[in-house]
Every structure is written in structure tokens, then in C-alpha cells.
Design goal:
The protein is of the alpha/beta class. The protein has helices spanning 4-10, 15-36, 55-78, 94-106, 123-139, 150-154, 202-214, 223-227, and strands spanning 40-47, 81-86, 113-121, 167-170, 189-192. The chain binds 3-methylbut-3-enyl trihydrogen diphosphate and magnesium ion.
């Protein structure tokens, strides 16, 4: 979700104004995902690098996040949305950590859409944490080094046991991954749009899904193999 600051600047307003508008876009996209029958939606809300922003902006983002959690959790649960947070939450205030835990518990029985919110998340952090967990398993004698395969590493990544994403959408015109789900994006279709996040609405989401539907996913095979029914 990129472009809140530029959206505000275009309107000669402070960056905080853009972030508040960004929260509306989040609501729109969750509703659009529910309507489209998407099973899993993962939003990159705050990266491990975002702590480098001016302290006032970081504080504003975290307050917005806390307020949105408190305000929206019940409605999300009623709409069948299960909330999960991925990322290193130990750096957040105890209030925020508690609110995150409460939102997860309150929505645990919802099964229509799993909504992962990546906060203080970094793809490299995720892979490192999984590597440490595997090393601990080896040291404790739970597994052998030869047992370490892709499935074993994936099982320790924070998205587990969810599948890797089919489609990655980045708004705001930059064409980079910025340390998002590095391991999982290996075969994900990438979609970049110049639309600034606060302007990204249900129609934009539908456009991205339509573009995804036109892509041919070969997973290393040739088009001819796919035509013959190979996976
Ligand atoms: C939102 O957009 C990203 C968040 C961290 C919430 P930006 O704040 O990065 O907006 P730009 O890139 O300055 O326009
Ligand atoms: Mg940005």
C-alpha cells in the first residue's frame, strides 16, 4: 500500500491526511476481496524499515492502526474475516500488542477471508527467523540437517500454513518488492499500478484481478505443455 504521502501532498495537506485516507482504501479493498471470493488477503501496513520515518509520522501510523483495530474488529468478525498479524510485534507498545492479540482471538472463528496484516514485517527477517527455528530444531535433535527442505523452511515462515500468494499488487508507481514476502513471491504474479493507495478502490482491485486472469502461469513449463494439461 504505497502513495499516501504523495496523495496528501497533491492536496497540499500533511502526510497524516493521506494515511487517514489510506485507511478508507483498506476498507474498500477488504470489501472488494470478500465480494470477489478471495481466500487470503495480505496487506503490508508497516515495514521493518518504516521505523526510519520521522518519529511523529511513525507514532501517527501506529495510533491509526490501533484505532482501526479497536473500531473495525467486530465488523470484520461479523463479515467472516479472520485477522492475523505477521511480523515482529515485540517492538510495539503493550497496548498495541494486546489489541492485536484480542483482534486475532475475536476473529478466530471466521472463515470467509483470512486477512493478514504485515506489521514490522520484513521478508529477510521472516527467512532469518525460520532459519533460526530450524537450527534450534537440529540442535535439539528434533530433525536432521538432511530433513531441511523447502517445506520444512516454509513451515516456520510467518504465513504458514497459508499458500503463497497468487497475485502481488503494489500501488504508487514504484516497481519493487521492498522486502515484502521474499520467499513466497518466487512464482507470484506481480502487478504494479501508478494509482496512489488512497485512490485504490474496488474498481482498481477488479482491474488487477482481471489482469491476473489474463496471465499465463507456467511454473517453468512451456505453453505447449500447459495446453496438454500438465500442471
Ligand atoms: C503508505 O504510503 C505506506 C505506509 C507506510 C503506510 P507512503 O507513506 O509510503 O506514501 P508516499 O510513498 O510518501 O507517497
Ligand atoms: Mg512510500
Amino acid at each position: 500500500m504505497d502513495g499516501n504521502g504523495r496523495w496528501a501532498k497533491l492536496r497540499k495537506r500533511p502526510r497524516a491526511f493521506g494515511h487517514r485516507a489510506g485507511v478508507h482504501a483498506v476498507r474498500n479493498v477488504i470489501e472488494a476481496a470478500l465480494r470477489a471470493g478471495v481466500d487470503v488477503l495480505t496487506l503490508f501496513a508497516f515495514s521493518s524499515e518504516n521505523w526510519s520515518r520521522p518519529p511523529g509520522e511513525v507514532q501517527h501510523l501506529l495510533e491509526l492502526f490501533l484505532r482501526a483495530l479497536r473500531k473495525e474488529t467486530r465488523e470484520l468478525a461479523e463479515n467472516g474475516v479472520r485477522l492475523r498479524f505477521i511480523g515482529d510485534r515485540t517492538r510495539f507498545s503493550s497496548d498495541l500488542q494486546r489489541a492485536m492479540g484480542e483482534s486475532e482471538s475475536a476473529t478466530v472463528a471466521s472463515h470467509r477471508l483470512t486477512l493478514n496484516i504485515a506489521v514490522n514485517y520484513g521478508g529477510r527477517w521472516d527467512i532469518l527467523a525460520a532459519t533460526r527455528a530450524l537450527a534450534a530444531d537440529v540442535k535439539a535433535g528434533r530433525i536432521e540437517i538432511d530433513d531441511i527442505d523447502q517445506a520444512a523452511l516454509e513451515s516456520h515462515l510467518s504465513l504458514a500454513p497459508l499458500p503463497e500468494p497468487d497475485l502481488f499488487i503494489r500501488t504508487g508507481g514504484e516497481a519493487r518488492i521492498s522486502n515484502f514476502l521474499l520467499w513466497h513471491l518466487a512464482y507470484t504474479e506481480l502487478y504494479f499500478t501508478p494509482v496512489l493507495w488512497p485512490d485504490f478502490d474496488a474498481a482498481c482491485f477488479q482491474t488487477a484481478l482481471a489482469e491476473f486472469a489474463r496471465r499465463e502461469r507456467r511454473f517453468g513449463h512451456t505453453s505447449e505443455q500447459l495446453a496438454q494439461g500438465q500442471p
